[in-house]
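Student: Please help interpret what follows.
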Amino acid sequence: MYLADVPSMQQDDFPKPGLSRPTLKRRVLHRAQQALYLSGLASLYAKLSRPNGALILMYHSVVDKEISVFIDPNNSVTVEQFSSQMQFLKQHCNVISLAKMLAHIQENKPLPERSVVITFDDGYRDNLTLAAPLLEKYQLPATLFLCTGYVERAETQWIDQLYTAFQLRTQHDLKTPFGDRQFNLLSKTEMQQAHRETVQQLLTAGLDKRTEILRQIKTQLQPKQETPRLTLNWDEVRQLKDNFPQFELGLHTRDHMDLAMLNQADIETEIKRCQLDYEQELSAKARFFSYPYGRNNEMIRAKVKAAGFDGAVITQPTALVKTTTDRFTLPRLETSASMLDLRLWTTGAFPALSKNIFGRAYE
């Protein structure tokens, strides 16, 4: 079996962590929502209803051809796609900083029409090398939420380590380290199932267990190439801070732990350690926090607030940020490569119009 004959991983086959593959019903809803924009209904709705609120966009990685093979496509857009999206936002929207949006909330001031906030999670090195220069070109502010443990270790995100092991494997039999299940990855169905089960384990694993699972999988699959360094180190974080002052920095825990799976003491440790890392390295305090995987509850929000943050972002539900929105549950919409989606989202009609017509929004 030649490597070219091995089924490769495609974005549609490997959905975002924690999500199932889109059903036919969801895919139809997605197309129906896009039709709202193409038909002009979304723009008409926005014109008549004049919705007030800000859309927060969430990015992770911006890739070029050199690094795209190592990064889960669910976590990335290409540099060409990102450039087109930033040009569109510059021309058609009012891009504001997260700090400015929060000031409107705290002062109960209406947000400017078609307000958009740009955010990034995790701390990919390409945020400095590829995204930041484009943001500077279009004079657009953004916020990057760092996982300080990953930055300290300059460690690739676990989802990309797993992706690389599967995508560049030279061996095709996998016995899962957590359930002793045997998979033949030459079967697309078994490959998908193995990947799905591994993701679910890694989502909730502690750092040591996560590291061991990844080690065992790499040992079995023997990928033909290790991932290059995809994460910022502290010197590069300082470079980003100094050279791109419109790129504000926030925090995303130390080790990208699902806080909802931790006890109170460990939650406090994840929050306090990332703050301490940041303050020691940058001699500054971060104002904003991003919950890993968007997972939060009342107790977690209380811990984040008690730690002194001014606000925090989530991922669900999809909604515009209003002046009445809780500043510790600021909703975001994860971006896709689709310009059509972006055009719909930034009309101001999404997600309200979709919910009014279809009873829900595709997220």
